């Protein structure tokens, strides 16, 4: 029984790690696509922004697929309750991600400006919508949901959009914008890189203020006590560490240290996901109302043999996936620059 409980907790933590990896990597993809209309001055700038994330975005989405698959296999009840209660929100995210993927593939198929503007809009919305919805959803899980006595959520999409959750959506949008702006500053040069650094300052201020407000709001919000929950000082300490990371990233940007700033925002995102899962533990679906009990890890977990097989498979294939992604980032590590245009022929010059 003890080993079983430990394996449940291990897989809960691993799923949290998968989400952290997804937000760390896909976060800058979202951020670049969201900020591209702001920092681009012409078609060349726009192409550079897309090319900066072109080799990475689809590989980074693997983390989302694995996180969803691991949740289905390790905690089928959690998966079922999430997809029944959050169905419309997750459907919106799915449609947005499909539109985003199509925009990468089809934008360059036709030179007409209307065609490209349409797919630019799809890329922007396909990145901004998930960035907001993920923040809303995870804030709901931290705050707790109004569950019925059987542990089901039936409030629909409107019930998820209470003010604190919307503030969480602002936090995730600003954090991903900051992360993406810093990635763009590292991957580009000259005027485009400078505009990306300025965008990073704006996103960073918004992220800092909104995250501070969210931590204060959630810290003051009461939630029914749960047996075995982590001491409140742990998720609070992690959240404050993330806040400090954002503040230090802003300072690094002002001093021209984009590399350090990018590392700090990445660390802040990972630590913030850790705070979310620490606050949820030991529930996978926490309740905000006293009349209901949240769904616990033990209730939602698969059989012990299933978790053992999953652990073996993860131990074999995870290093392969990490090695492949590391190789991809190494191959495409160079900065992108604007193409040098040949000087125009002087008036009256001879041409061949």
Characterization of the model:
The chain has 14 helices and two strands, in the order ααααααααααααββαα. The protein has 352 residues and is mostly helical. The C terminus is likely disordered. A two-stranded antiparallel ribbon has the order 1-2. It has one domain.
In short:
The protein is mostly helical and 352 residues long.
In DSSP terms (H or I, runs of 4 or more residues), the helix count works out at: 14
Number of strands: 2
How big a fraction of the residues is strand?
under 5%
Strand order of the largest sheet: 1-2
Tell me the series of helices and strands, N- to C-terminal. HHHHHHHHHHHHEEHH
Straight-line distance between termini: 85 Å
Low-confidence stretches: 344-352
Helical residue percent?
over 70%
Rounded Rg: 22 Å
Reported for the largest beta sheet, the result is: 2 strands, antiparallel
Mean pLDDT: 89
Based on secondary structure, the structural category is mainly alpha
* Domains (count): 1
What's the shape?
Answer: globular
